[in-house]
């Protein structure tokens, strides 16, 4: 398909632009950052009434530093011009003779996609005079003999992606255009600094964090034992921008949709997982990672995205924080402000049903065969910032997007964008997937007693367990930020009840019953247990009544995945506890490392649950506790002068604390602006030392992060902060 013509108009009152030939046709040439001359045609070429015999030259020089600084793209490792839409950038055009404004007619052309058309915004001519403008503005800011400096402002809603740039000149033989050459490709990104852009974020501290920061902290662990994981997003690394654009290409996303952040993030949410579209990452929660990299082993997004871009095959393996981290890289790389969010005690797979059901038998013992629902210790998703013109006013801003494949949305495994404000106010009818996210943070935990005839009765409802805490990294700092109040009103408040009633109007089903609270409480302690340690579990029963109580209790300890799914049970006790009025009784249960060590899965979570039935009243009591075992640490040390372009040394040390050797140990290390991802496989042994040399590329504060992973021990990591001077 041919390119559209320039719009018909008379730039000087004397002639009209004729139809344009295809880019790359004979006539002129173009060179980015060069000053060479090549034969154009054996014929004479007339420009602006002046005859040039034999040769004609056109060059473009892009002022790198001024454009990069103005457009906040100085950190991208790329050989090409990278700018942001809705903001002016500078280009110098060098002709082979002096430019004469009254006579010479030329334009810059920007083309994206395989079938560019003016009407679709995939072919954009930009003229040097304000009187003749298209959707992009152009103006000449300076002329000096044969050098014309031109400023171009792409539309604030233009297509985001990789463009080709041409110069077109009117001659007596028609319009001649420079040849197609990859050296003059350029990229246009979303612009959170431009007020007219849909992703505009009017907070410089947040912009620096959510667009420009490469090193992140992802929170995991348990609600009352929060852990941190360093991650190198690497959004500016060489090849990452092309890899992100390839994701949209692989999804066969129409070029014309790529200027709309709503459509971009929705497509990317599906493409970051491989469930139905051969997307970026293969999810695996089995504990067997033989044919790929264990999710706990990754240190950053770079290896994942570059591997996908080069192999064109999904990368193995991921869990929720890996999906969220790589999605964060995609969003920040394209210029959409984003952050990784962790929701503690996250309800899953309930399709907007605000109930997580736990089935007990008649005696109060949990029925694991019939209990299908689970509550994840934590779940990571993303928030991205954008306006929502498809929603009523007030529902723009932060939007939830999630690439972890849980449920289908419009036929594909994806989630969002869902307005955080809509979720908080129960407006779950708004697109996209607000009801699903609402349930993740607002579900009730309902304990049902199943009788012998199969009927079930709710015996206890916990309305505060799910969505206990929502965290993200603080902007400009390494501390955590509690954003729970952005998702929900205070538990038990009038506002919360109003929101839940609103959600019910839109179809969310809640548990209506309110079983009376038992007059005996059971309390589990906070435990800090290192991997391989023995432990003591002190279970306390508190009788709040004026009468003696007897409890038939069930104490269970299981190794669980962080998704709440039990792997194996290593502790099971059935004590009968007698408690005098207004007193308490405690019992200490001993756990030995040999009972759980060989059963551990990658995140070393132990789940203790106590249930019981009060003989005198028939009431059910329950308590749950998740304990994340503490892993040994990697010791990471960095030495050297700490100057740009001067070699430094990173040492990683690890001592095996166990009585058995660790086999097939895999270690990784990287650092933004200092060290590309490196890895090493060690066959076994009781200790290791790994030394790597690296050369910092830029000044500033950064971190070297490292992970150790093997089948017997996962989620071991360490980091060292580094300050590099110019």
UniProtKB/TrEMBL annotation:
One of its GO terms (biological process) is blood coagulation, fibrin clot formation. The active site is at 320, 379, 402. Its cofactor is Ca(2+). Binds 1 Ca(2+) ion per subunit. Residues 312-405 form the Transglutaminase-like domain. Its EC number is 2.3.2.13. The gene is f13a1b. Belongs to the transglutaminase superfamily. Transglutaminase family. It comes from the Eukaryota. PANTHER family: COAGULATION FACTOR XIII A CHAIN, PROTEIN-GLUTAMINE GAMMA-GLUTAMYLTRANSFERASE. InterPro entries: Ig-like_fold, Ig_E-set, Papain-like_cys_pep_sf, Transglutaminase, Transglutaminase-like, Transglutaminase-like_sf, Transglutaminase_animal, Transglutaminase_C. GO terms for molecular function: metal ion binding; protein-glutamine gamma-glutamyltransferase activity. Pfam families: Transglut_C, Transglut_core, Transglut_N. Keywords: Acyltransferase, Calcium, Metal-binding, Transferase. Ca(2+) binds at residues 442, 444, 491, 496. This is protein-glutamine gamma-glutamyltransferase.
